[in-house]
Amino acid sequence: MSTAEIDQLARLLAKLPGLGARSSRRAVLALLKRRETLGEPLVRALREAFDKVRACGVCGNLDSIDPCGICASQRRDRQTILVCEEVEDLWAMERAQSYGGLYHVLGGKLSAIDAVGPEDLGIDRLMARIQADDVKEVILALGATVDGQTTAHYIAERLAGLAVNVSRLGHGVPVGGELNYLDEGTLQAALRARQKLTL
Amino acid sequence: MIEWRDEGIVLSSRRHGENDAILALMTFEHGRHMGLVRGGGGRRLGPLLQAGNRLEAVWKARIVDHLGHFALEPVRLYAAGLLDDPLRLAAAAGACAMVDEALPERDPHPRLFAALLTLLERLTGDAAWPEAYVRFELLLLAELGFGLELDVCAVTGESEGLAFVSPRTGKAVTMAAAGTYADRLLRLPSFLVLPVPADRQGIADGLRLAGFFLDRHIVGPVDKPLPLARDRFVSLWQARLDATDDAREDGA
C-alpha cells in the first residue's frame, strides 16, 4: 500500500531517462529511508539547479552563469567553434579533454519527419557569432546519421561565403573496436577516410 | 501470431521511449509498413535505421491491426555511402521522405520499391542518378493514380515536338499547340519523351513538373507541404544549376 504522495513522486521519477515504474518506486523508497542524507540534499540541489542553471545566451550550454564558463574563459581557443546537437554532446567532448575551443549547441538537427527546419535551430545565431568574433575554424561534430550529416552539409553551405575553415569529425573504427564486430556502414566510412601511415 | 518476412528500404524512424524506435519501411510485398523496433534507439540498431538502408525484415504481431514489431538484418546499408555527398544524400532523403509522405500504409507497390532500389543503387554508384530521381517521382504519381500522359499532345494528338505539360490535365502539349499559352504551361524535359541524356536544366524542369503534381494531388489535398527533405534536394539542385550558369557567364 502507498499514499498518493508516494505514487505521485514515483510517477514523476519514472518519466526520467533510465527509470521505469519499478526502479522509480525503489528510488522513492531510498529517498524516504535516507531522508536527511539523500532526500533533503536532493531537494535542495534540485531547487538550486532550477533557480540558477540557464542556457548560455552565446553557445546554448547549461551553466549557472551567462555567458557560461566555457564562453567566458580566456584560456580557450576563441577562434575555433565546435558545433554539436545537444548539451550532452558538449559534455562528451569536454570529458575527452582533447578540445580547447568554444562550442555552439544547436539544440537538435534538421529532420524531415519531425519537420525541424533551419529556423528551428540556432543557425542564424551561429552565423552572427562567427562573423562578429573573427572565428577561423568551425568543427561540425554532428552525428553520422542522415539527419546529422544533412545538418552538417547545410551549415557548411551557409558558411561557404565566409573566411572560415569548416571541418567535421572523422567517421570510422572506434578505439578498441574490432573489424568483424562493426556494421558495414561504419566499415565503408572508415575505408573512405583511410589515411597514409607515417613512419 | 501473424508473421511475414520481406525486404524493405528504411523511409524514416522515430525514437519511441528511451530505447525503441518506430520504423517506416517500404517493403516489396507489403508496401509502406510500420513497426516497433526494440532497441532501435540504441547503438547496435541505430546504424541500420537510417533512411535509404536496405534491410531484411521479419514483422510479427498478435493481430493484423497491431503496430507489430520488426526484427531486422542488414542487406545493403546505402546511407553510409551517401553521408559525404550533400546532393546525393539530399536526393536519397528526399525520395524516402516523399514515399513516406505519399504512400498509404500496407498497400503494395512493388514497381515503386524496385524504382527506389534502382535510385539508391545509382546514388551510391557511378551511373547517372538525377534522371532516375525524376522518373521515380513520376512513377510515384502514376502508382497513386495520377500518372502524367506524356506520349501524345493533348491538343493535336501528335507525338513529336512535345515540349510542355498542361498543369490542369497533366497531359503533354507540343510547342506549336502551346502558342501564346506556353508561359502558363510546365516545361516537359526532352529526356522524358526522347532517347536523349538529361541535362541539368532538364532535371530542374523534371523536378518542377513532378513537384507541381505531387503538391496538387498528394500533399495539397491533405493541407500539407512537400517534405522538407525534398525541398532541400530541389533547392540544392537549383543552386548548383545557378552556380554553373554564373560560371558560364563569367567565362563568356
UniProtKB/TrEMBL annotation, chain A:
GO terms for biological process: DNA recombination; DNA repair. Belongs to the RecR family. A zinc finger (C4-type) spans 56-71. The keyword Zinc-finger applies. InterPro entries: DNA_Rcmb_RecR (IPR000093), Rcmb_RecR (IPR023627), Rcmb_RecR_Znf (IPR015967), TOPRIM_dom (IPR006171), TOPRIM_RecR (IPR034137). May play a role in DNA repair. It seems to be involved in an RecBC-independent recombinational process of DNA repair. It may act with RecF and RecO. Residues 79-174 form the Toprim domain. Pfam families: RecR_C, RecR_HhH, RecR_ZnF, Toprim_4. One of its GO terms (molecular function) is zinc ion binding. HAMAP family: RecR. This is Recombination protein RecR.
UniProtKB/TrEMBL annotation, chain B:
One of its GO terms (biological process) is double-strand break repair. Transmembrane segments: none annotated. InterPro entries: ARFGAP/RecO, DNA_rep/recomb_RecO_N, NA-bd_OB-fold, RecO, RecO_C. It comes from the Bacteria. Residues 1-70 form the DNA replication/recombination mediator RecO N-terminal domain. The lineage of its organism: Bacteria, Pseudomonadati, Pseudomonadota, Alphaproteobacteria, Geminicoccales. Involved in DNA repair and RecF pathway recombination. Belongs to the RecO family. This is DNA repair protein RecO. GO terms for cellular component: bacterial nucleoid. Keywords: DNA damage, DNA recombination, DNA repair. Signal peptide: none annotated.
